[in-house]
């Protein structure tokens, strides 16, 4: 497996190199040049397998020659030791709950696999590194938990002070040990910009920094697996499936694009966004404009005004977008529009869906999942396409207790994993968005 950079100015590298580096030296994002394609027989043979086995079989093909099979199998079964429920709403609609991992969001799927893969390579070479990651809430906690207590890896998480819930913050601040939480007086986009600048800063080279955001290819590949899983549980080859994905930085959606490339019959990918509607606008008009600053919506993990994975999406459809969001070469818009349908959902619509699902079906969903459901509904209304669909619930309702309680009048029950962090002592540092102060902080902390 060779990976290229979306900025096309860097050499192709192995999976291990891309995983450890995070960002390419030309500041582009790594993308697999080729992907294996699963035949009908191969897909069908996985039909009744449990999640970790499907994950192992998919990764074995994708990472062929990059890791020995025995270690991979061990890593996969260790990472995926929790349930992946598919909940039926009606004959053509299912909710896939990706909220049963240790930090109760879908980010656990990627973070747990990436942490274990990194540890595998670092141990082999007796190396150490520091993960620098910006989070709008759930990435930080998933990454912090995934790496917590590992020997060769330190983690620094930047989060926007006012934009994460108390519960999200506690999941990052109560760990300590090799995990540092850094509260930034700004927005998610500021945190992301600071992290990117640190990676590009020659003065910090000796600190061995790496990323764990959705910009790391090690996060993206595991996010293709649950699309295999949903397909295998719900459909028989070659029947098609529609998927609705609540999207912010578009890493989850890119996972689906990869799964489709690998042969999963996904008819259409619905990228459902909140009021940060730069992607639906782009698909509609062919003109891209970031939203600066990003809008604060109820589904706070999706408040992204310029999704970093957009460069990857554009690359895979034959175009080129630089890290500023400038499109140097247009992708094949016709094919892009055929495969991906993007819908913006308002906060009022989000609340209405949460309430309706609870009152009518007795199903509790949180704001991100509600955006996915509403996106699917709008799609069906606009196109009349009633192909069976799965919509993703990307977090547990208990991660957003105030929002859920305010809308449906009921406090969601805390899963066991979250109960433990509630009581813990918090450790964190605070900074402004001034890059020079951040740089000093890193040097002080890591040198
Ligand atoms: C991160 C996150 C999203 C958005 O996922 P992207 O890969 O950034 O598009 C959606 N829902 C929840 C709960 C999240 O934490």
TrEMBL record:
<dbReference type="Pfam" id="PF00291">
    <property type="entry name" value="PALP"/>
</dbReference>
<protein>
    <recommendedName>
        <fullName>Threonine synthase</fullName>
        <ecNumber>4.2.3.1</ecNumber>
    </recommendedName>
</protein>
<dbReference type="InterPro" id="IPR051166">
    <property type="entry name" value="Threonine_Synthase"/>
</dbReference>
<keyword id="KW-0663">Pyridoxal phosphate</keyword>
<feature type="modified residue" description="N6-(pyridoxal phosphate)lysine">
    <location>
        <position position="107"/>
    </location>
</feature>
<dbReference type="InterPro" id="IPR029144">
    <property type="entry name" value="Thr_synth_N"/>
</dbReference>
<dbReference type="InterPro" id="IPR004450">
    <property type="entry name" value="Thr_synthase-like"/>
</dbReference>
<dbReference type="InterPro" id="IPR001926">
    <property type="entry name" value="TrpB-like_PALP"/>
</dbReference>
<dbReference type="GO" id="GO:0004795">
    <property type="term" value="F:threonine synthase activity"/>
</dbReference>
<comment type="similarity">
    <text>Belongs to the threonine synthase family.</text>
</comment>
<feature type="domain" description="Threonine synthase N-terminal">
    <location>
        <begin position="4"/>
        <end position="80"/>
    </location>
</feature>
<dbReference type="Pfam" id="PF14821">
    <property type="entry name" value="Thr_synth_N"/>
</dbReference>
<dbReference type="InterPro" id="IPR036052">
    <property type="entry name" value="TrpB-like_PALP_sf"/>
</dbReference>
<keyword id="KW-0456">Lyase</keyword>
<feature type="domain" description="Tryptophan synthase beta chain-like PALP">
    <location>
        <begin position="93"/>
        <end position="387"/>
    </location>
</feature>
<dbReference type="InterPro" id="IPR037158">
    <property type="entry name" value="Thr_synth_N_sf"/>
</dbReference>
<dbReference type="GO" id="GO:0009088">
    <property type="term" value="P:threonine biosynthetic process"/>
</dbReference>
């Amino acid at each position: 497996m060779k990976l290229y950079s979306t900025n096309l100015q860097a050499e192709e590298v192995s999976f291990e190199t891309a995983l450890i580096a995070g960002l390419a030296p030309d500041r582009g994002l790594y993308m697999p040049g080729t992907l294996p394609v699963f035949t009908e027989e191969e897909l069908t043979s996985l039909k009744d397998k449990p999640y970790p086995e499907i994950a192992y079989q998919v990764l074995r093909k994708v990472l062929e020659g990059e890791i020995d099979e025995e270690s991979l199998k061990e890593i996969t079964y260790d990472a995926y030791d929790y349930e992946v429920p598919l909940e039926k709403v009606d004959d053509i609609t299912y909710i896939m709950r990706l909220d049963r991992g240790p930090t109760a969001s879908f980010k656990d799927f990627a973070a747990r696999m990436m942490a274990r893969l990194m540890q595998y390579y670092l141990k082999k070479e007796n190396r150490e590194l520091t993960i620098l990651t910006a989070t709008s809430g759930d990435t930080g906690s998933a990454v912090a938990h995934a790496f917590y207590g590992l020997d060769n890896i330190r983690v620094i998480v930047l989060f926007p002070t006012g934009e994460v819930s108390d519960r999200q913050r506690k999941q990052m601040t109560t760990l300590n040990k090799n995990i540092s939480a850094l509260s930034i007086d700004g927005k998610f986009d500021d945190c992301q910009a600071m992290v990117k600048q640190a990676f590009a800063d020659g003065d910090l080279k000796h600190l061995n920094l790496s990323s764990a955001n959705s910009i790391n290819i090690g996060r993206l590949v595991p996010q293709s697996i649950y699309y295999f899983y949903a397909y295998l549980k719900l459909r028989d080859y070659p029947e098609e499936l529609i998927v609705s994905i609540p999207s912010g930085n578009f890493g989850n959606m890119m996972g689906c694009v990869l799964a489709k490339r690998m042969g999963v019959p996904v008819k259409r990918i619905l990228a459902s966004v909140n009021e940060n509607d730069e992607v639906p606008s782009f698909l509609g008009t062919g003109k891209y404009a970031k939203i600066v600053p990003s809008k604060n919506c109820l589904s706070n993990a999706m408040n992204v005004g310029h999704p970093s994975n957009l460069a990857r999406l554009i690359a895979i459809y034959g175009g080129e977008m630089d890290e500023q969001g400038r499109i140097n070469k247009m992708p094949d818009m016709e094919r892009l529009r055929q495969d991906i349908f993007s819908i913006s959902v308002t906060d009022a619509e989000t609340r209405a869906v949460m309430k309706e699902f609870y009152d009518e079906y007795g199903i509790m969903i949180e704001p991100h999942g509600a955006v996915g459901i509403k996106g699917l509904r709008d799609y069906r209304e606009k196109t009349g396409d009633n192909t069976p669909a799965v919509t993703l619930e990307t977090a547990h309702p208990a991660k957003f207790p105030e929002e859920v309680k305010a809308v449906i009048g009921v406090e969601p029950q805390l899963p066991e994993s979250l109960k433990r962090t509630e009581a813990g002592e918090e450790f964190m540092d605070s900074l402004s968005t001034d890059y020079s102060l951040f740089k000093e902080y890193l040097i002080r902390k890591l040198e």
